[in-house]
Structures are given as structure tokens and as C-alpha cells.
Amino acid sequence: MLLGVNVDHVATVREARRDIEPDPLKAAELAINGGADGITVHLREDRRHIQDRDLIGIRKRVKTVELNLEMAATDEMVGIALKVRPDMVTLVPEKRAELTTEGGLDLKKSGKKIKKAIDAIQGKGMPVSLFINPSITDVEISKKLGAKMVEIHTGLYSNAKGKRQIEELKRVKKAVKRAHEIGLLVNAGHGLNYTNVKKIAAIKAIRGLYIGHSIVARTVYDGMENAVREMKKLIEEGAK
Asked: Structure pTM?
């Protein structure tokens, strides 16, 4: 099972100051060193975190693992995908007011627009994955629209507790099973962290898991001590 690491929130920290640090490209390289099988970036229409230059830089440098571009099914984004040529594209919904993606694509409402994007991107040899809710109906519509893959939204599972989480896990399993049955490659992601990922990873038909926020958050804790130690060392050297 593959691990795709989303580096968006490294850029979120940078954009809080409109600075050059931390650099999502450097984070991507470190993630690959740590064993990541892929790097994901979400180029939003409002450019709230990842910028066009980040995507271009990461595409130039990330060659040994899969580069997954998350984006809305808009003409602008399709044009960028065709120019940059990531290894795969995941179409996701976007709302300007949301903090993070809140659910899967509305395939019934936006089917024509999504199919247009799928045809344009896959026509140039890049597979498209649709970020969908854990729904049998959405899985089957994804197949009809011509997508090669789906990414099952695990947010409700990740946020649930007790019996509710068990029910949400069942929904994810059913959606994965149906997607696998009808010939779709199946990924999963959203809200997965160090305490809830194992039960999703146990679903054998899943091709890959796409995780970002919890890894970036863990990096803050596990990397802080070393970062402070290095800064302290430089100060002491300079003060001699």
C-alpha cells in the first residue's frame, strides 16, 4: 500500500507570513527520504497555500515517486495540469470558505464538468482520480464518468468515535469493495492520523493512502528539538 504525503500545510505556515520558509519542496524531499511513495499538492483556486511556483518546482524535482495534483475541475486548473503534467490528478471539490475539503465531489450536480476535465486530462495520458464520499452510488457514477481511480473520503470515519466510527468504517469498506469489483483503482484519505490509520490500512484492496495534516503536525513535534538544538549551537558559535 502506497503512502502519498500531502505537503500543503507546510505552505500554509509559510503563507501566514508571506515568507520563503518553510519550503514545501524541501518538505517533499524529506518525505521521500522518509519513505513516501508519492507527494501530493492541492493547488487551490484562491492559492491559500500551495502556489504555482511550488507545483512547478516540485514537478521538476520529484521524479522518483508519484506526484499527485489535487485540484478543482475548472478550465484554469485543467490547463495547469496539462502544462505541468503530474503523474496523476485527483479532482476535488472546493469552497472558498472551507478550512479544508469537507466532503466528496457532488457527481450528480457537477457530472458534466467533471467528465470534461477527466477526458481532457486522461486524453493526455494522466490518470484521474475522483475524491468521493464512501458511497456505492458515487463509486458507480465515477466509473461511468470514465475515471481510472477514486479516492474514498475517510473524514467521517476519522472524526467519529465508538459505534459511529465502526459504522463509518463499514461504509468505507463497502465503497472500496465495490470500486475494486468494477475495475477502479482505489485510494483513501482525509483526516487519517497516527491513531486511526491502521484500520483503513487493513483494507487490502486500497492502492494508496493520502495523508498530510497529521504528518506535518507530527513533524512540528518530532523536529522541534533538533531545530532548536541546531539554532542554539549556531548562537553559541557566533557568541564565542
From this structure: 0.92
